[in-house]
Amino acid sequence: MKGFDFDFLKVSPTDVVDIVLVALLIYYVYTLIRNTLAVNLLVGMFIITVFYWIVKGLQMELLTTIIEKFMSVGIIALIVIFHPEIRRFLLLIGKNAFLQKNKAWWGYLFGRKEIERNNLTRIKPIIDACKTMKKTRTGALIVFVKFYDEQFFANSCEVVDAKISKRLLESIFQKNSPLHDGAVVISENKIKSASCILPLTDNDQLPSQFGLRHRAGIGVSETTDAVAVIISEETGEISYAKQGRVRMNVSFGELEKLLNKDF
Q1: Which residues contact 225 (CB under 8 A, 6 or more apart)?
Q2: How many CB atoms sit inside 10 A of residue 69's CB?
Q3: Which of 57, 73, 80, 223 is 20 to 30 A from 41 in CA distance terms?
Q4: Delimiting residues of CATH 3.40.1700.10 domain(s) in the chain
Q5: pTM of the model
Q6: Tens of pLDDT along 51-77?
Q7: Burial letters for 219-234: b for 16+ Cβ neighbours within 10 Å, e otherwise?
């Protein structure tokens, strides 16, 4: 009786390194496209691929030919569609962000609770500023981005590049401040810029009470990986925009949890 050949189960040290590197690459690509529109694009591409194999199996020649022509430019289409993500990935490598900026692996393995406590310390000045602005009904738009794109923000913002502080945020959004119109952009634990003019959302299903501040916060969350905290000048209500969706009437406890997760 002929035995089974188990040679394919043999794993060399090189294979282990190969698997680990691929796993790390997939993880970092996932962190780049997570909470972005790129996820929806990948799902769409997967559906098109499945549909292609179905119509090919059913011998639908016309549809097969059309989809094949579409897929023949797949590499170029990927570069165009995922240009922002590819740019951020190269920026991540250039800044040595694998170890310095993205510490998720180390957080899971060594002291995640300590990292969360440090993050809450960084968030506290923002929460305190929001409490004051809600009480005084001071309109505000604070945008948090993982990767600060200087080309995206430089043309419409005043560069600040300052440490996050309650008083600074309050002074920026004071009605008499020359910077109070527009958004404050926070990244890398700094207030990077203020008075930013952001793209407005095209969503026509939003509540009628949403003004330019809300539409700008939602708009930037649709086109980038940013999240936005919006304080209404009329009601003092706090809203939270992410991936084009907005959560209204957010409490300070909820805001703290959301920022701790996303910021």
Answers
A1: 35, 36, 145, 146, 147
A2: 9
A3: 57
A4: 112-262
A5: 0.61
A6: 888 888 888 888 888 878 777 766 676
A7: bbbbebbbbbbbbbee
Q: 112-262: which CATH topology?
A: YojJ-like (1 (3.40.1700)
Question: What is the arrangement of strands in the sheet containing 245-247, beginning at the earlier edge strand?
Answer: 158-163, 190-196, 183-187, 140-144, 227-231, 238-242, 245-247
101-160: pLDDT as tens digits: 454 445 555 555 555 566 677 889 999 999 999 999 999 999 998 877 776 676 778 888
Alpha carbon distances (Å) from 17 to 27, 100, 237: 15, 22, 51
The distance of Cα 197 from the centroid of its chain, to the nearest Å, equals 19
Q: Which tokens go with 207?
A: 């509540």
Here the tokens at position 215 are 């539409």
